[in-house]
Amino acid sequence: MTVDLQVLPIFVVITAVLALIPFVAMGEPNFDPYHPRKNPHLPYFLPTPHNVTFIKGQEAILQCAVENRGTKTVVWRKEPQSNPLTIGKTRFVADQRFRIENLEHSLSWNLHIRDVKASDSGIYECQVVAKKRKIRQHIELNVDVSSEAIKPKITINGTLFMEKGQTLRLVCNATGSRYPPDAIDWFKDGSKIKSNGRVALTSDVSLAESTISSILSVRRAMLEDAGTYVCRTSDLQVTSARVNILNTDTNNEKRESSGVTSIGSGTYEVQRSEQDPHNSKRPLHPNTVLVGFIVTLLLLKCRIIS
After folding, report:
1. Is residue 109 within 8 Å of residue 125, measured between CB atoms?
2. Is 111 within 8 Å of 98 (Cβ atoms)?
3. Strands 161-163 and 238-246
4. Which InterPro entries does this chain map to (predicted)?
5. What are the helix and strand counts (H, E) for the chain?
6. pTM for the full model?
7. Domain ranges of the chain
8. Is the distance from CB of 148 to CB of 49 less than 8 angstroms?
9. SS3 of 11, please?
10. How far apart, in whole angstroms, are the C-alpha atoms of residue 179 and residue 112?
11. What is the pLDDT of residue 14?
12. Which one of 158, 172, 206, 248 is at 20 to 30 Å from 180 when CA atoms are compared?
């Protein structure tokens, strides 16, 4: 086999250039062999806020969403501390205000801090532990101490005692810590109440006051409408009230034969003055004695005259 000496140098040059291409690529400033676009099977973070602010007393939520996590573990820590706050869903600090929220089949591994304080401010790290390196994302938490957060509250108002046939009306007011709850559900004796011909449900939301109000109206209340009414918000605030329905249907006719008269809802006995024929020892009235004495004198006078 003969090789053309003029072609040989060109072949050597081409071979050398092809061999240097990987090294040239690795020298690029943006080259990352672990980037998901280079290796789509590696975990990577989805876009989430990197700087969040919460009012003192609120529940702070630091978001972290991971794609292609597989069996790898998500770890949260606060810089510059080396000890983790959470590993997976397990809390590794004594402070019970910290917890992880990860729903089944969800990509989110959000860190929740209940009743957030000024000391909770700082840089937090969401980390995915891989074989060759740790994939990190940082979130800055700011706590506003200039104003206190509104504490969630729920109340029921309305008439708890009413007569049958009147309109039953209850008002449930609920306040959220930052935003009003999304909805309010009503229950009676454990069963959810729905609108129908007699039952009406109306709601009103105030974003300025972080409040939602729900009005339950039941027209022509019946005795079976009495019971325990519960209102529950979408953020699981719950309160209840007991409603009593009074039956005021009464017979106001006087029952003389039995000596009893019914007045309203009370019953009173009518006392009759009747002389007891068997009571012979009852003392006589003084006037009766005087009349008898005068009659006796008149009879004696008549006998004398005759």
Report:
1. no
2. yes
3. parallel
4. Ig-like_dom, Ig-like_dom_sf, Ig-like_fold, Ig_I-set, Ig_sub, Ig_sub2, Zig-8
5. 2, 23
6. 0.43
7. 44-144, 153-246
8. no
9. helix
10. 17
11. 64
12. 158
Do 44-144 and 153-246 fold alike per CATH? Answer: yes
Three-state DSSP class for 183?
A: coil
The residue behind tokens 């876009």 is: 47
Q: Does 44-144 carry CATH code 2.60.120.260?
A: no
**Count of residues in the chain:** 306
* H helix runs in the chain, sequence order: 8-26, 286-305
pLDDT value for 19 = 57
Residue bearing the bigger pLDDT, 225 or 25: 225
Per residue in 24-54, pLDDT (tens digit) is: 444 444 444 445 445 667 888 999 999 999 9
Q: How far apart are CA 97 and CA 201, in angstroms?
A: 36
Beta-carbon contacts of 208 under 8 Å, excluding residues fewer than 6 positions away, are none
3-state SS string for 63-80: CCEEECCCCCEEEEEECC
Amino acid identity of residue 288, one-letter, is T
Across residues 210-236, what is the average pLDDT?
A: 91
Structure tokens at 302: 């008549």
Closest CA to 85 of 104, 60, 54, 58: 60
Kindly tell me the burial class for residue 201, based on how many C-beta atoms sit within 10 Å of its own C-beta (0-12, 13-18, 19 or more): middle
Residues facing residue 60 across a β-bridge:
113
Q: If you classify domain 153-246 with CATH, what class do you get?
A: mainly beta
User: Can you tell me the distance from the alpha carbon of 195 to that of 143, in angstroms, rounded to the nearest whole number?
Assistant: 43
